[in-house]
Amino acid sequence: MTPTLEDARRFDAEDPLSGFRDRFVAPDDEGIVAYLDGNSLGRPPKATLARLDSLVRGEWGTGLIRSWSEGWMELPVQVGDRLGAAALGAAPGQVVVADSTSVCLYKVLRAAVALRPGRTEIVTDRHNFPTDNYVVQGVADELGLAVRWIDSDPEGGVTGEELAAALSERTAVVILSHVAYRSAFIADMAAITELGHSCGALVVWDLCHSVGSVPVELDALGVDFAVGCTYKVLNAGPGAPAFVYVRAEHQEAFRQPIWGWMGSDLPFAMEHGYQPAAGVRRALSGTPPITGMVGVDEGVALVAEAGIDRIRAKAVELGEMVIELADEWLVPLGMRVASPRDAELRGGHVTVARADGEELSRRLIDEGVIIDFRPPDGIRIGLSPLTTSFAETWQAMDAMRRIAAEGR
């Protein structure tokens, strides 16, 4: 039976995470019907407002430069440890917060290739997020390597069978996204990591659409390296720093290419020669962005409090409702569900598609349904469990039904 608005409101009343919505800044815009783009930019937590005020008035305004030695220097690893525990299944000392996702991926790819001398190929997905593929192409061009592209299903993602066909003794590194940015397909991290290792390659995962939304067990699955952003479901803020995971067993040999003083063993010794710091701190380069770092810390605290399993459960429930409504309302209007229907294979968003998806997206946004468009025809409905309600999602789908009918 198709869910009604009354059903959606009842789901909200029964939702154990519903109270978290009040802990975020509400949009000062009565024209917003629903914000369904939290998987691109999460809403700001009220705690971040308070934390930034404290930072500016106290740590920065009063502590001034003394604050570096009174806690700031340790934030990249401390916040990384908290993130690892809350959302990544990573023991302490393996996650550090630093730079952008693109820079982090460049560091990790260069380091991983160096750990597999004599191997000449990087394997990745042609339909991966563009920045990942640009970084891969740049590293391959820089080092004279070949890229072996997997042509995955754009409405799905890379399977173990596709990866197995691409692997060989030439493979140095496999780099894939755990959750596909278009379709939300969840790759089989365990099987793919094992496959990569079976041919002697190292495996790198992009967790941008996983972290804070889908449980991840990096340590348990033997993942070598991972990167990801924090401004989506972690709600850390626009341009907030990304993170790097370096498995403990690789850290002594890990040599990333952007040598900076914050990644050195004695940053304030001002020595002429570079010596990397012990442990994951060697993944750092320049001065940590403290104002962004506190946003990550507050976002991680909310995820830890809510619990990643409860977050995942709500994301599944929201996704199931979206697909039910899409089947009832949108499919008869020529739209299709361009995400996996099996909840175990679907991350925290649902994509629906039609040839005029770009125009429909513009009209939806104009009418206060904030989604995003992904070429060639996908309308991506982001379901951020701490900030997205069932009722606003239902109302957004109702608006989409009307706009799609008018467009047709």
From TrEMBL:
Cofactor dependence: pyridoxal 5'-phosphate
Listed GO MF terms: kynureninase activity
Keyword Hydrolase: yes
Keywords, alphabetical: Hydrolase, Pyridine nucleotide biosynthesis, Pyridoxal phosphate
SUPFAM superfamilies assigned: PLP-dependent transferases
Pathway: Cofactor biosynthesis; NAD(+) biosynthesis; quinolinate from L-kynurenine: step 2/3; Amino-acid degradation; L-kynurenine degradation; L-alanine and anthranilate from L-kynurenine: step 1/1
Catalytic reaction(s) noted: L-kynurenine + H2O = anthranilate + L-alanine + H(+); 3-hydroxy-L-kynurenine + H2O = 3-hydroxyanthranilate + L-alanine + H(+)
Keyword Hydrolase (UniProt): yes
InterPro entries: DegT/StrS_aminotransferase, Kynureninase, PyrdxlP-dep_Trfase, PyrdxlP-dep_Trfase_major, PyrdxlP-dep_Trfase_small
Enzyme class: hydrolase
Signal peptide region: none
Listed EC numbers: 3.7.1.3
Family: Belongs to the DegT/DnrJ/EryC1 family.
Function: Catalyzes the cleavage of L-kynurenine (L-Kyn) and L-3-hydroxykynurenine (L-3OHKyn) into anthranilic acid (AA) and 3-hydroxyanthranilic acid (3-OHAA), respectively.
Complex and partners: Homodimer.
Listed name of the protein: Kynureninase
Organism ancestry: Bacteria, Bacillati, Actinomycetota, Actinomycetes, Pseudonocardiales
